[in-house]
Amino acid sequence: MARVKKRRASGRRSPMAAVVLIGVGLLFTGGIYAGASAAVAATTDSPATAAALSVDDGKKLFQANCATCHGMDLQGTPNGPSLYGVGELAVEFQVATGRMPLAMQGPQAQQKPPQFTEDQIRAMAAYVQSVAPGPTYPSAQTLDGKGDVPNGAELFRTNCAMCHNVSGAGGALTEGKFAPALNDVSALHMYAAMVTGPQNMPVFGNLNLNLDEKRDIISYLLYLQHNESPGGYGLGSLGPVSEGLFAWIFGIGTLIGATVWITAKSN
């Protein structure tokens, strides 16, 4: 019988093998890189590390970002006022609302997203408080929103509504200034505004509004934030201006349209 020769394997691999090997290699190295990055981020940005910011850290942040206008020793410059006596509460308010650092000169500082983390803001505030003490953070009870809401409404109408509107919708002032809307302001920043008097707002000391009265006003504003208008659509809560405009456009407009339609039908 004739012997049948076995064909030797050529040893050539499929063209897809190299592609598969490259893909596996990329997935493997990418996984290692992602895991290492997550580990580094967890180490550097963990709450324990962030909470460790000290007054000295706040001093460095202040000198790097605020001293140009307010001076290395908080003494003020031609570009910014002195911070002696403003306290940590004013610093927290101005920086946490993005009003500081100031983006540009104008009638008043505009609110914008903050440029620092909460811990960095607290550290800078603690530094200012250590150098030039002033108003500090209130107790949790003052901010709990469980005060006398009707009394807070009356106090707000008497002391604040002429600028902020009776419903806290804000309003225009002179020379391009304005009183901001209060529909998304935190309880802490409501208190800080009353105590520190930012922008055009006066300072309400304990002789003007005691601590319980401030708590009542905060409770009233928080009530407005979390409860819908009982009268239906509020039209921005801007009062007679928006209501009159609505009546003029839709009310009188409807009457005119009906008159034109009746006249056209009669002809």
From TrEMBL:
SUPFAM superfamilies named among the record's database cross-references: Cytochrome c
Record keywords: Cell membrane, Electron transport, Heme, Iron, Membrane, Metal-binding, Repeat, Respiratory chain, Translocase, Transmembrane, Transmembrane helix, Transport
Reactions catalysed according to its record: a quinol + 2 Fe(III)-[cytochrome c](out) = a quinone + 2 Fe(II)-[cytochrome c](out) + 2 H(+)(out)
PANTHER family membership: CBB3-TYPE CYTOCHROME C OXIDASE SUBUNIT FIXP, CYTOCHROME BC1 COMPLEX CYTOCHROME C SUBUNIT
Compartment annotation: Cell membrane
Description of how the protein assembles with itself and partners: The cytochrome bc1 complex is composed of a cytochrome b (QcrB), the Rieske iron-sulfur protein (QcrA) and a diheme cytochrome c (QcrC) subunit.
Transmembrane segments annotated in the record for this chain: 245-264
Domain of life of the source: Bacteria
UniProt xrefs under Pfam families: Cytochrom_C, Cytochrome_CBB3
Domain Cytochrome c: 53-132, 147-225
Name of the protein in its database record: Cytochrome bc1 complex cytochrome c subunit
Enzyme Commission code: 7.1.1.8
Topological relation to the membrane, as annotated: Multi-pass membrane protein
Main location: membrane
